[in-house]
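SEQUENCE WITH STRUCTURE:
===
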Amino acid sequence: MPVRTAQAEWQGTLKEGKGKMAFGGGAYEGAYSFSSRFEAGKGTNPEELIAASHAGCFSMALSARLGNAGFAPKSVKTTAKVHLEKVGEGFGITKIELDTVADVPGIKADAFQEHAEQAKKGCPVSRALSAVEIKLNARLVS
């Protein structure tokens, strides 16, 4: 399996400095700053990139589980919210919320919920982030 990479560079002090992050595959490069991380400033931040990774991984994991169980999902769309909060003297990621809407013909709601819970537990990003509370809200659409 390939090893995935990303790079980040920070220049200056925490509050006045600036940085940039880039994916090793070239699909993304963007700026980040104190303001984009701790306020509502323009740019990205590490937590937003974690959210994107988790949403993507979970959507694929759920689709794989459903396919292995004989269902053919039309779509699995996930939004991840990563909560960064003051914890003691510093900051910490305190919770991740996964909100998923899936179109899966022929599946019953209880079976879908079970597959969603198992995908949350088995997704590699969920496992890597297991020190953080992960909440799941999974819904079916027709």
